[in-house]
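Methods, example record. To illustrate the input and output format used throughout this study, we show the complete record for Mannonate dehydratase. The sequence lines were provided to the predictor; the line carrying structure tokens was produced by it.
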Amino acid sequence: MKMTFRWYGEGNDQVTLGHIKQIPGVEGIVWSLHDMPAGELWSEERIAKEKAIIEAAGFNIDVVESVNVHEDIKLGLPSRDQYIENYKETLRRLAKAGVKVVCYNFMPVFDWTRTSLYKETEDGSNALFFEKSQIHNIDPTELIEKLAKDVDVTMPGWEPERLGKLKQTFKQYEGFGAEDLWKNLQYFLEQVIPVCEECGIKMGIHPDDPAFPIFGLPRIIINKENIGRFLGLVDSPYNGLSLCTGSLGSANNDIPDIIDTYHDRIHFMHIRNVKRYENGDFIETSHRACDGSVDTVKVINTLHKHGYQGYVRPDHGRHIWGEEKWARPGYGLYDRALGIMYILGVWDNLNHEKV
Ligand SMILES: [Mn+2]
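The corresponding predicted structure is encoded as:
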């Protein structure tokens, strides 16, 4: 596995490349142009600038997370064709700069949803939390506005231009079902994957988070069966997965079994843990297997068994040692660094005869 760390860019992240440099084993930065609205063509200058910053710090730029998919593509509106053309050209430019894997998602309206960003836990840390009953009793625009007020940074999927149009976007999805979303995803892939085959970029779709429908919006990348259907939409190694154990772990998925079945289509792994409660609530925990509902050791063992050569990053961490005062929700420094040491500890142990 090749270890990476997500970083939001200079001036946009309190974590610095210097901090990341001191975490053992990190080879690459998972990056994006976070101020770029979905659907826009990325400029070669901006890509080159980001590449220079990251490479100067001694990291590779192999993985981009994300190039966001414009809502009109998910909705299947006539305007999607121009946005898809922009997407294809952005991929060509990223390939030219040396990018190997692009992560994206195909979730209507929101990239991810929680009901609390700083839920306190018994040990004094706090973490992202999802309370199912709250979701049923709140208007989605109210919920997102409430959460957005808790932080002074823009979070992926909650960009101001998206938030400003939430009510209108929800209206557009009235009467829109899972099969419509499948059809529009297929249309997108049939255009984009041939470009990836030409330029050598592997696409990795991120599972829906949480992995079940909310607010009446369809969610399709949620379980083994649907992942199989997704991979069959365009049966190419370039049409693959960014397998996120935390997202799939928000529902009762057997993730080691999913890895066993689809390992040759996994280009990028997000490894983290969540604790699921019987009432459907879940909270993000440390990466350790016994702290949550995801058997992270078995996940790593299964990747090792298949000789996984792809990219890995620790996903969301808890906020610990007071870092909630400055860290992005889920993207502090400390718990993700601990997560890396856990992942690499298990991995090195499996490799011990070779070390
Ligand atoms: Mn993830």
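Annotations derived from this record:
Residues 206, 244, 246-247, 270, 315 surround manganese (II) ion (CB under 6 Å).
The longest helix spans residues 178-199.
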